[in-house]
Amino acid sequence: MKKGLVLEGGAMRGLFTAGVMDVLMENGVGFDGVVGVSAGACFGCNYKSNQPGRSIRYNTRFARDKRYCSVRSFIRTGDLYNAEFCYHTIPKELDVFDEETFNNSPMEFYVVCTDAETGKAVYRRCSRADDSFLEWVRASASMPLAARVVDIDGRKLLDGGIADSIPLRFMESTGYERNVVILTQPRGYRKKQTKSLRLIKTAMRKYPAIINAVAERHKMYNSELKYVVAAENEGRAFVIAPDEKLPANHVEHDPEVMREVYRLGRKAGTEKLDELIAFLGKIE
Fold first, then answer.
1. Are strands 155-159 and 150-152 parallel, antiparallel or unpaired?
2. Three-state secondary structure along the chain?
3. Report field, pTM of the whole predicted structure over 0.90
4. pLDDT at 249 over 90
5. pLDDT tens across 135-148, in order?
6. What pairing do the DSSP bridges indicate for beta strands 155-159 and 108-115?
7. Other residues' Cβ atoms within 10 Å of the Cβ of residue 277
8. How far is CA 240 from CA 17, 46, 179, 258, in A?
9. Could you tell me how far CA 225 lies from the centroid of its own chain?
C-alpha cells in the first residue's frame, strides 16, 4: 500500500506544515511520495532531502533581508520573493539543499503548478534537484500580483493553488491509497472569492484562463475540503490542521511570528504522532 503526504500551500502559514513535517522526520516516519503546492512544495522538498529544521532556519534567518522578500525586489525584478536569491543563492550557497540525498531517495516528489494559458493544474514529478527542479518549485509558489509568470519547458506557469490547492485526488489517482494531508487553515474554514480579483483582471489580462480560475478558486477549494473530509471519514486520509487561524500573514517579516507558527505545527505533529503512525501501519 503506497503512503503519501499531501501538502497545502498558504505562504508563511506553510511553516505550520514545516513544524509537522520536522516531527515526522525526526521520528522516522516514511512516505512513498509527497505532493506539494506553493509553500507546500517549497518546504516539502526537505522531506525527500531529509533536512528537518531547514525551512524554519532559513526563513527566520532571512526574514528581514531585502534580498529575500521586499518591495525593492518586486520593483527591480517583478517578484516579491527574489527568484535568484530565494531559489538559487540560498539552496546552493547560504543554506545548502542536500541534492545528493534528494536524488538518491526513492520517495516520489510532485510539484503542482497552474498553466497560465489553460488555467489547469500541471503535476510535475521531480526526481533530481537540478536548476529545472528549483524553477518548478518557484513556479508552484508564484502568486499572481506578487510574482511573474514562470516559463518552463514551453509552459507559462503560476501558483499551483489556483488550480489544485489540496491535491489529494491527484495522489489517489497516482496509486496512493493511504494519505496524510496537512492543511494550513483550521477545520471549518471556507474560502471566499478573493478581494483582489479586480487587480488580477488587470495584471493577468493576457491570461483570461487564469482570471477565470482565480474567480472560481473558492469553489474549487471548498469542494476539495469536502473531499478531504469524506476521505478522512472513510479512513483513506489522515488530516492534520491548525486548531485556529494561524498568526502569520502571507508575507511575514517577523521571525518570532514565524517561530510561533512553526511551534504550533510541531505541537500538532507531536500530538497526532501515535495516531498517524497507527494510520500508516508502521514506521518504515
1. antiparallel
2. CEEEEEECCCHHHHHHHHHHHHHHHHCCCCCCEEEEECHHHHHHHHHHCCCCCHHHHHHHHCCCCCCCECHHHHHHHCCCECHHHHHHHHHHHHCCCCHHHHHHCCCEEEEEEEECCCCCEEEEECCCCCHHHHHHHHHHCCCCCCCCCEEECCEEEEEHHHCCCCCHHHHHHCCEEEEEEECCCCCCCCCCCCCCHHHHHHHCCCCHHHHHHHHHHHHHHHHHHHHHHHHHHCCCEEEECCCCCCCCCCCCCCHHHHHHHHHHHHHHHHHHHHHHHHHHCCCC
3. yes
4. no
5. 999 999 999 999 99
6. antiparallel
7. 16
8. 9, 19, 11, 19
9. 16
Supply 179's cell numbers: 494519505
pLDDT of residue 282: 55
What does the pLDDT average to over 217-232? Answer: 98
pLDDT confidence of residue 284 = 47
